[in-house]
Automatic annotation (TrEMBL):
Belongs to the UDP-glycosyltransferase family. This is Glycosyltransferase. It comes from the Eukaryota. It comes from Musa acuminata subsp. malaccensis (Wild banana). Its EC number is 2.4.1.-. SUPFAM superfamilies: UDP-Glycosyltransferase/glycogen phosphorylase.
Length: 543
């Protein structure tokens, strides 16, 4: 999409929350904005930049005006292990507050960098946990929009619970109650709600700070599309009093007319050609794909029970697992003998090319933790799901998948795990029989199964159309950009004497085809390390 005289003066600054499931969709949003003619800066850290290197390279090769700024993450200063720069790298949830506070220290070096940028920032889009990002937007006199990585359904559910406090009047954490203010009747248990709703939670102060920042933001950006969550975006806008833009599924920005689907993610731990050949050997819609995201992990007992259930189903399956520190010799032996040597199983240790796998014609079902990115990727592939939520808002997503959209089968998990990690040695949440039965129901060729598949395929078509030039998400992206244009003009009309923060002397560098290089600079006795990743040629000096 060509630039215009208006949009090419806009500069969006994107600050993803430091977790893979948040960074990748934000990078896709950056590409979408750049395709609409704007300049985009994506803020990251060295370890995260290295981790998503293939994605960064893909964006650089596209020629889009997207710049990756890598700011040194002060892990050690905040009491974290060296190199702990992502949520899934935190060794214990007890360190979450330290990680949150470390993120705050990125504000000043980022502001210093942005002072030298031309065009100057026009809008900040921030991940939800960066409560300090609103201050950056205020300093430049630009709107601050929030991207939480949730569905409209989950966002509205949480907002209404904050408003009505229905959950606080339920006597038992395991007693179902009706979520208030939704167009569908949906029941949930208090123990299944996101932890940030609890007033007495140990992270309550952090959650309060985050919510205060969200309340002062100018709008909400959602990775969804109007046709998927009919009416929920409008209700969310009414409940929050903010503008809401559904601009997804943003993962499709990488897939339409391009050959880089497999390069969206970190390096795959399995040869992609081998994976494709294995899938090619099976008939259409016969394979089950199993993955629990970047945060999900299980104790050996549950892991072996899960594998036993997949084997008992009699279906071929692709199983993505994280090799945990809790693995015993028994676990390794069991996996080697029962799973790795089984011709009906393709075992992938580590990261997998999920988008490519789900899009393969052989895949007919998806066992998922109900993370929103994975849910959308399942929708975009037209694949029905078996739901096994772990934590955060995933139980809400399960309700959307199973009860509202009717494209999934629930495993009936009752309680969340701690940060997605089921590590208690003796706990088995889902038995092999329960999983095998769910697979049988999902893959059944009877009337219910066919109707479920029909609905899933219809949503796939709607997702594709939403991202086309006249589609709802495409139009919403244009409305978002127009909002920023009008906001900038209005601000300078009413604040004609406003000047941006003073320009500072910066030394930045450009990397192409080699390791990232950091260039130090000192400002107000604080030394920081800054690097510009490939995608934009920059030079030292006052800009």
């Amino acid at each position: 999409m060509g630039t215009t005289s208006n949009t090419d003066r806009l500069h969006f600054v994107l600050i993803p929350w430091l977790a893979p499931g948040h960074m990748l969709p934000m990078i896709d949003i950056a590409c979408l904005l750049a395709e609409h003619g704007t300049t985009v800066t994506v803020v990251t850290t060295p370890a995260n930049a290295s981790r998503i290197g293939p994605t960064i390279d893909r964006v650089a090769d596209s020629g889009l005006p997207v710049c990756f700024v890598s700011l040194r993450f002060p892990a050690v200063e905040a009491g974290l292990p060296e190199g702990c720069e992502s949520v899934d790298a935190i060794p214990s949830s007890d360190l979450m507050i330290d990680f949150f506070n470390a993120g705050k220290l990125l504000k000043h070096p980022l502001t210093d960098h942005l002072c030298g940028c031309r065009p100057a920032p026009s809008c900040v889009i921030t991940g939800t946990h960066h409560a300090w990002a609103d201050d950056v937007a205020l300093e430049f006199g630009v709107p601050c929009l929030v991207f939480r990585g949730y569905s409209c359904f989950s966002l509205l559910s949480v907002e209404n619970l904050h408003l009505y406090k229905t959950h606080e009047h339920v006597p038992s954490a395991t007693e179902p109650f009706v979520l208030p203010g939704l167009p569908h009747r949906v029941e949930i248990k208090r123990c299944q709600l996101p932890r940030h709703i609890e007033r007495a939670h140990r992270f309550a102060e952090m959650f309060r700070e985050i919510r205060d920042a969200e309340s002062s933001s100018d709008g909400i950006v959602v990775n969804s599309f109007d046709e998927l969550e009919v009416g929920y975006g409008e209700r969310l806008a009414k409940a929050t009093g903010k503008k809401v833009w559904n601009i997804g599924p943003v993962s499709l920005v990488c897939n339409q007319g391009r050959q880089d689907i497999a390069r969206r993610e970190d390096k795959a731990s399995v040869d992609e050609a081998q994976c494709s050949r294995w899938l090619d050997s099976w008939s259409p819609e016969s394979v089950i794909y199993v993955s629990f995201g970047s945060m999900g992990s299980f104790a050996p007992s549950q892991l072996m029970e899960l594998g036993s259930g997949l084997l008992a189903s009699g279906r071929p399956f692709v199983w993505v697992i994280k090799v945990g520190r809790t693995w015993t010799e028994e676990t390794q032996t069991w996996m080697s003998e029962r799973v790795e040597g089984n011709s009906k199983c393709l075992l992938i240790k580590g990261w997998a090319p999920q988008v490519r796998i789900l899009s393969h014609p052989a895949v007919g079902g998806f066992v998922t933790h109900c993370g929103w990115n994975s849910t959308l990727e399942g929708v975009c592939a037209g694949v029905p799901m078996i739901t096994w939520p772990l934590f955060a808002e995933q139980f809400l997503n399960e309700k959307l998948i199973v009860e509202v959209l009717a494209i999934g089968v629930s495993l009936g998990v009752e309680k969340p795990t701690e940060w997605g990690k089921l590590v208690e040695e003796d706990v088995v949440v889902v038995t092999k029989g329960e999983l095998a039965k769910a697979v049988e129901i999902l893959m059944d060729k009877g009337e219910q199964g066919e109707e479920r598949r029909k609905r899933a395929k219809a949503l796939k078509e709607k997702a594709m159309r939403a991202m086309e030039d006249a589609g709802s998400s495409h139009l919403n992206m244009e409305r978002l950009i127009q909002y920023v244009l009008v906001s900038r003009e209005s601000y300078h009309t009413y604040h004609p004497h406003h000047t941006p923060p003073p320009q500072r002397k910066l030394c930045v560098g450009y990397r192409k085809g080699g390791p990232m290089h950091g260039f130090g600079f000192k400002e107000l006795s604080l030394s920081w390390s800054l690097a510009i990743d490939e995608g934009w040629m920059c030079s030292g000096g006052t800009k």
